[in-house]
Design a protein that fits this description.
The complex is a heterodimer of chains A (173) and B (285). Chain A is 78% helix and 0% strand. Chain A is mostly helical and 173 residues long. Chain A has one domain. In chain A, helix 1 runs antiparallel to helix 7, helix 3 crosses helix 6 and helix 5 packs antiparallel against helix 6. The longest helix of chain A is centred in the last third of the chain and has 36 residues. The relative contact order of chain A is 0.16. Chain B is α+β, with helices and mostly antiparallel strands. Chain B folds into 2 domains: 76 residues, no CATH class; 169 residues, Rod shape-determining protein MreC, domain 1 (Thrombin, subunit H). Chain B is 34% helix and 31% strand. Chain B has a 6-stranded antiparallel beta barrel with strand order 1-2-5-4-3-12. Chain B has a 6-stranded antiparallel β-barrel with strand order 6-7-8-11-10-9. Chain B starts with 6 loop residues before the first helix and ends in a 5-residue tail after the last strand. The chains are: A mainly alpha (173), B alpha+beta (285). Chains A and B meet through helix 1, helix 4, helix 5 and helix 6 of A and helix 1, helix 2, strand 1 and strand 2 of B. Chain B: Keywords: Cell shape, Coiled coil, Membrane, Transmembrane, Transmembrane helix. Chain B: Belongs to the MreC family. Chain B: Involved in formation and maintenance of cell shape.
């Protein structure tokens, strides 16, 4: 019983992870138009919504870590970036969530804070490794801003369907 | 109010940071050397790659059908232009074939087996790309089982687009020539001028103008705008004669010494579905 419930939510998260890459490839010309870069973060949306709407989903932190490891290995080949950051944003979510009652507006705001932290950390790590030479004054308007805007729109459209899906998968026995 | 991190959690996070730094250092060192990633990682990537086909195949189908519609709109205009070029091309092709066979015979007489210009091609389809733009990576659907090796150059259409940076069993990663990565391998290129060739290196990419930059040229060559740039085959696994683009701008530095060029790439570096991996016949270093 419990195993099956776990599997379907996991399948959803893996699917969102792969969708991130495919959508970025399909809309590559639109999303990466100079100077703006928009990064699709459906997996993060999935993780945050699973945290709120499937609270008894076991080992979410570990699953975020494993997904992060696959994400690193499959997409960039640099291990240790998302492996570390996906669990961290879940901890951040948990810490912020205790101050509020989870309404859609609150979850949206938390999601944006998570993304800001995530993108800034990824930028910091890439600078640290010498994989980019972008300056902070370019990063904020060219990447962080458009990424937040895109993901806010995606959040507005996907909040209800994803919530229903997660609730349904969570109650499937 | 609960603290953000209790002591125990703080320690766990510290350890996580250290492990993550270690993993990063390890990955960067693997990436910059000739090694492939460890077996476990390759296996994991293969599994994800196979699962990804479930998502990527329908998605890429949608992409190509949209592409087909937008191509249809431009067809008439393109058709008239292409017709004009076609006659010229037939002549060039015959000439190229004659020269190629003559070249082969001459090589035989000289007892030369393979030279820098000999290469074979492997076709592959693009599976997906990394969502973030920090590493300009594509994942293609062929790997070591199809004979792909690290550092092979990759082309799309008629132009060079990048090189293989990581090989797994059934998929591999391509780093685009547009990367901002400071430790990326650079292509050795040559400009074909009216009086010989000038050697240099592709040093980077200007996103604002979508043009490649070429530097470290031997500056006595008389380079003109419109000259052809191709790979020179010096170093690595790249053969000679892969088309890169055409010169659009020639710049001297403040002292008139170093010369740098801007090159318009032959292909749109953001939009392609099929790539060709180039295997040089002569062994690399």
């Amino acid at each position: 019983m419990r195993l099956r419930e776990k599997i379907w939510l996991n399948v959803l998260l893996v699917f969102l992870m792969l969708l991130d890459g495919s959508l970025s490839y399909i809309f590559g010309g639109t999303l990466h138009r100079y100077p703006d870069t928009m990064i699709i973060r459906l997996l993060v949306l999935g993780l945050v919504l699973v945290y709120f709407f499937a609270p008894d989903f076991p080992h979410l932190l570990w699953i975020a870590l494993i997904l992060g490891l696959f994400y690193d290995s499959f997409y960039t080949g640099i291990l240790g970036v998302y492996t570390f950051l996906f669990p961290l944003i879940l901890l951040l979510t948990r810490w912020i969530a205790q101050f509020f009652t989870p309404a859609p507006l609150v979850i949206g705001a938390i999601y944006l804070i998570d993304l800001t932290a995530l993108e800034s950390c990824v930028y910091g790590m890439n600078t640290f490794m010498g994989l980019t030479t972008m300056s902070l004054s370019d990063f904020i308007p060219d990447i962080l801003g458009p990424t937040l805007a895109l993901n806010l729109v995606l959040f507005i459209f996907l909040y209800l369907p994803l919530r229903q899906l997660i609730l349904k998968l969570d109650s499937t026995y | 109010m609960q603290k953000f991190f209790s002591n125990r959690k703080l320690i766990i996070v510290m350890i996580a940071i250290i492990i993550s730094m270690g993993l990063m250092a390890f990955s960067v060192s693997v990436r910059n050397s000739e090694k492939t990633p460890p077996l476990v990682q390759r296996f994991g990537n293969d599994v994800v790659g196979v699962v990804d086909r479930v998502v990527a195949l329908p998605a890429n189908g949608v992409k190509s059908s949209f592409g087909a519609v937008s191509n249809l709109i431009n067809t008439y205009e393109e058709n008239t232009k292409l017709k004009a070029q076609l006659d010229d091309l037939a002549q060039t092709k015959t000439r190229a074939q004659t020269l190629q066979s003559e070249n082969k015979e001459l090589k035989k007489q000289l007892k030369l087996d393979k030279t820098l210009t000999d290469y074979s091609q492997l076709n592959a389809a693009v599976l997906t790309r990394s969502p973030a733009n920090w590493q300009n990576n594509l994942v293609i659907n062929k790997g070591s089982l199809a004979g792909i090796k690290k550092n092979m150059p990759v082309m799309a259409g008629s132009g060079l687009i990048g090189r293989i940076v990581e090989v797994n069993g059934t998929n591999s990663k391509v780093e685009l020539i547009t990367t901002d990565n400071q430790s990326a391998n650079r292509f050795a290129a040559e400009v074909i001028t009216s009086d010989g060739t000038a050697n240099g290196i592709i040093t980077g990419y200007d996103q604002a103008t979508s043009e490649l930059k070429m530097g470290q040229l031997n500056s006595d060559a008389k380079i003109k705008v419109g000259d052809t740039v191709q790979t020179s085959g010096l170093g690595g696994l790249t053969p000679r004669g892969l088309y890169i683009g055409k010169v659009t701008k020639i710049k001297h530095d403040d002292y008139g010494l170093a010369l740098s060029l801007e090159i318009k790439p032959a292909v749109d570096l953001d939009d392609f579905t099929v790539v060709t991996v180039i295997e040089r016949q002569i062994a690399g270093d």
